């Protein structure tokens, strides 16, 4: 279903369902999940999605599939007995060798879930991987897809962050017809992409802001410290095949956002500090309802400053998330967009 096509009744059902899924996810979130959201992987998936001319939603969904796969598969490798005749190091080496194909498999699977984008067939997949230096057979591609599906128990259709943003935007437009949600829609895509790429820095700043602690521990940030072996493996994967991508298009979007926000700086006024209202900050980093309203708040600030406070209050009414929490998220994100810690300490 395309944006703005849903009826009021459908929107109510969508929002209720998203809220249930989000709450269930937060109750069962892995304490180490945040350790495996690497900005370089996210950037590669976004660039890959653009190169393949897929709908942006496919990129966000592929990031989610990959993150869940990494967390679950590594957890199984570290907790289950090593198969007879195999070594733990050998299993990690095999996973490292197949990692680029596994990433592509997540993109390919996400394309098959979308009605708005062309599906990637195996011929296209083989040609694309060959063009970036990976010679892979169709059989290997099928086995890679099946591996991802089996590890995730074929549950790959959970809503991604863009789904939350779009449903919340539609509800916002239904409740307040004067709000130009169609104009906000495209801008929200860019803001969400920026937040995804700058995720660690933004949430670290949000943690510092909410706890008033200049140097939070890793336990405060993520709940647990991931074993050094796993971190080392991830670092080796990154350095072994992720180079320096041509990310000029993404940098251009960041520059456009920065210019837009700088025009608003003169209108800022002070917002009181908030307090951390969750037991573990890792739950905040995985709260897609908060992410959704935060992204819309940032886009609204850039596009329609005069109505920003009204939009934040309506988002709070829709989701039950406090206006202060939404404002905190927006302030921290805007701070990173303009790359000036002192410029966004105040919001209208």
UniProtKB/TrEMBL annotation:
It comes from the Eukaryota. One of its GO terms (cellular component) is site of double-strand break. GO terms for biological process: reciprocal meiotic recombination. Coiled coil: none annotated. InterPro entries: Cyclin-like_sf. PANTHER family: CYCLIN N-TERMINAL DOMAIN-CONTAINING PROTEIN 1. This is Cyclin N-terminal domain-containing protein 1. It comes from Takifugu flavidus (sansaifugu).
């Amino acid at each position: 279903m395309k944006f703005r096509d849903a009826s009021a009744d459908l929107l109510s059902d969508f929002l209720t369902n998203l809220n249930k899924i989000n709450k269930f996810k937060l109750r069962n979130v892995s304490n180490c999940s945040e350790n495996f959201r690497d900005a370089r992987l996210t950037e590669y998936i976004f660039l890959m999605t653009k190169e393949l001319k897929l709908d942006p939603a496919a990129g966000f969904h592929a990031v989610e599939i990959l993150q869940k796969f990494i967390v679950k598969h590594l957890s199984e490798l570290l907790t289950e007995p090593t198969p007879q005749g195999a070594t733990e190091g050998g299993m990690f080496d095999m996973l490292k060798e197949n990692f680029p194909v596994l990433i592509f498999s997540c993109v390919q699977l996400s394309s098959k879930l979308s009605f708005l984008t062309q599906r990637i067939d195996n011929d296209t997949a083989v040609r694309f991987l060959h063009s970036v230096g990976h010679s892979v057979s169709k059989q290997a591609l099928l086995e890679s897809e099946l591996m991802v599906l089996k590890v995730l128990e074929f549950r790959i259709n959970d809503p991604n962050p863009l789904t939350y943003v779009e449903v919340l935007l539609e509800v916002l437009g239904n409740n307040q017809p004067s709000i130009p949600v169609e104009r906000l829609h495209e801008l929200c895509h860019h803001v969400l992409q920026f937040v995804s790429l700058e995720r660690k820095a933004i949430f670290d700043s949000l943690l510092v802001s909410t706890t008033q602690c200049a140097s939070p521990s890793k336990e405060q940030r993520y709940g647990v410290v991931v074993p050094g072996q796993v971190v080392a493996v991830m670092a080796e994967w990154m350095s072994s095949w992720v180079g320096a991508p041509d990310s000029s298009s993404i940098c251009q979007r960041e520059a456009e956002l920065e210019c837009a926000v700088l025009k608003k700086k003169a209108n800022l006024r002070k917002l009181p500090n908030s307090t951390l209202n969750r037991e573990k900050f890792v739950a905040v980093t995985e709260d897609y309802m908060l992410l959704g309203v935060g992204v819309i708040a940032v886009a609204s600030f850039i596009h329609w400053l005069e109505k920003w406070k009204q939009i934040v209050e309506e988002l709070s009414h829709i989701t039950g998330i406090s206006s202060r929490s939404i404002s905190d998220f927006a302030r921290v994100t805007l701070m990173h967009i303009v790359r000036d810690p002192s410029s966004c300490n105040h919001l209208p």
